[in-house]
## 1
Amino acid sequence: GAGVSQSPRYKVAKRGQDVALRCDPISGHVSLFWYQQALGQGPEFLTYFQNEAQLDKSGLPSDRFFAERPEGSVSTLKIQRTQQEDSAVYLCASSLVPSGPTEAFFGQGTRLTVV
Amino acid sequence: AQSVAQPEDQVNVAEGNPLTVKCTYSVSGNPYLFWYVQYPNRGLQFLLKYITGDNLVKGSYGFEAEFNKSQTSFHLKKPSALVSDSALYFCAVRDSYNQGGKLIFGQGTELSVKP
């Protein structure tokens, strides 16, 4: 597709359930980012991949959060034992090259609600 | 530490009037600055960026932004607002020394343009 695609668009999880969120970046984009956007807030960085290598995971809030990009294209963000505070919109973004001032292109996000 | 401040939660403008959405930043190195717009239930859309050179940057949909190094500001402007410009606007900064492209976002400013 032409843009970044995320699925599902909406996810309701019971507290304690594991969830997996998928991101299909723009074809050929080397860099992939995950951000978390709480209601009424700006996006906050979670993690960054350059191809299949996870180079920065400093924003992951706990060890319940795990991300992978095994073949350097599609990425999955997994949240184990979900908590209510995990409720947010999870945004995926990709950019063509890892260096220089290239802009990132964002997907529509996955809205996660933990009940 | 890098940070972005958007001092106004909401900006109200009459259609046809000029608009300004304010942004100030803090970064240790040279900044790359970005503006994104978010429509309801949509992902972030790139508007414009400042890398270096001319302090006035022109972007999509008639928007422009002025970089002011001494005031560490990057205000978004448009000479004549449209009702369709109503949306949530985010300013973001990246340190040019930061490999990978992680963005630090402001809290967002809700722009409301009334007919």
## 2
Amino acid sequence: GAVVSQHPSWVICKSGTSVKIECRSLDFQATTMFWYRQFPKQSLMLMATSNEGSKATYEQGVEKDKFLINHASLTLSTLTVTSAHPEDSSFYICSASEGSYEQYFGPGTRLTVT
Amino acid sequence: TQLLEQSPQFLSIQEGENLTVYCNSSSVFSSLQWYRQEPGEGPVLLVTVVTGGEVKKLKRLTFQFGDARKDSSLHITAAQPGDTGLYLCAGRNNDMRFGAGTRLTVKP
């Protein structure tokens, strides 16, 4: 149980385009979903927290208009990187929680902006 | 400034050796989790500790939560190459904050 999927697993896009990443909880209802960013050989940096049906809470320094997060249902959250630039290239990981102590992580999405 | 300090940052050992990874903070957490992450994958939850002084064992891995719920340790006995990975601790209150991680390499 507690499986979280992400799609796509990797994506290459051109600078200036937008990319949408999906995060799904497959066998539980995720009241809260989290989006993280991870640079090579570094730890996870929390970008935002989203609760189903409400606006996401962004961490300081994360641009709301650039990283659009939607948590429309208890099993799906999306992260859209708008007007992507090469510096947005990173490993994006989502996690989901059903209100207990644990967060369950997706496998990550590697974004490369050329 | 990292809320959770992990040490050591890097660790390279031979198969069969024992090791301990530390996770320290000045903050009190309601719970603390340990994860292991392999390259190109998401972190996988190893254990959650909740009670101060709690000790949990998972095969060759022993996790301890400090009495004051500010620190934790992960001890691996007789490490194997399959234990290689990035070990992350994460403390939880209203949200979850991760340490910088300990990158472990176990050489055969």
